[in-house]
Specification:
- The chain is mainly α and 287 residues long.
- It has one domain.
- It has eleven helices and two strands.
- The protein has a two-stranded antiparallel ribbon with strand order 1-2.
- A hairpin with a 4-residue loop joins strand 1 and strand 2.
- Helix 1 crosses helix 9.
- The N and C termini lie far apart (45 Å).
- The model has no long low-confidence stretch (mean pLDDT 90).
Amino acid sequence: MQALYGQLLIGLINGAFYALLSLGLAVIFGMLNIINFAHGALYMMGAFCAYFLLNVLGLNYWYALVLAPLAVGILGMIIERTMLQWLAGLDHLYGLLLTFGLALIIQGIFQNNFGSSGLPYAIPPQLTGGQNLGFMFLPNYRAWVIVFSLVICIATWFVIERTRLGAYLRAATENPTLVRAFGINVPRMITLTYGFGVALAALAGVLAAPINQVRPLMGADFIIVVFAVVVIGGMGSIMGSIVTGFGLGLVEGLTKYFYPEASNTVVFVVMAIVLAFRPAGLFGRTA
C-alpha cells in the first residue's frame, strides 16, 4: 500500500504541474484564440530563471517564486506585441506554427549552452523534511507544491469567472469593438492576458525545479501531455483544465502502480474516449 500511496502522491504532483500549465494554455486560447506551443519552453525558462536568480544574484527560492514568473511574463508580452498580434483573425494554424518555431529556438539556445543534463536546484530549507502520516511519508515540499498550485488555480478561476475584470476579458474575446466603446484598451488587455498565461507556465517551472531539476528539454517532456489535458477538459475551459489536470495526474499514478507499461499512453487513451463521446471536451461548450 505504501507503493500505491507513493504513486498517488507522484500523480498529484504531476497533476499540479499539468493543471498550472494547461490553465495557462486555456487562458491564452480562451481569451486570445492562440494555440501556444511555446508554453513548454516558457515553463523551462521559468525553471532556468529561478536557477540564475539563485546562482548569479544569490536570491533564494521565495524571491524566484515571484520574480521568475514576472520576468517570463514580460517576455511573453514582448512576444505577443512583436509577433502574435499580427496573427489576429487568421487561422489557428499560423499561431501554432509560430509558437512551435519559438519553442524550438528557445530550447535549442538553452541546450547549446547548458547541454541536456539536469542542473540541481535545492529545496528551500523551510520546506525540507516531511511528515510521517502512518500510512506513508509525505515530503513537505511536495505537499507545498500541491497546495500552492491548487490555490493559484482556484484564484485564477475566480478572477476570470467571478470578477468584473474577468467579465471584461470574456467580453473582449466575444466583442472587442463593444468593449472599446467603454473606453477599455483591448490590445493592452490581450497583451497582459498572454503575459499572465505565460507567467503561470513559468510559475510551474519554478515549482518543478527542485523536483525534476533544471533541464533545457523539461518542457518538451510535458507539453504534449498538457495539450491532451486541455483537449480533454475543453479548449479554453478554466475549470476543465484544473479538474482534468489533477484528475489525469491521479489516473497516471494509479496506472503506474497497476499497469506501468500503459502509464505513458493512458492520458491519450482517455483523450480518445472523451472525444468519441464529447468532442468539445468534458467542460467545453458545444458550438
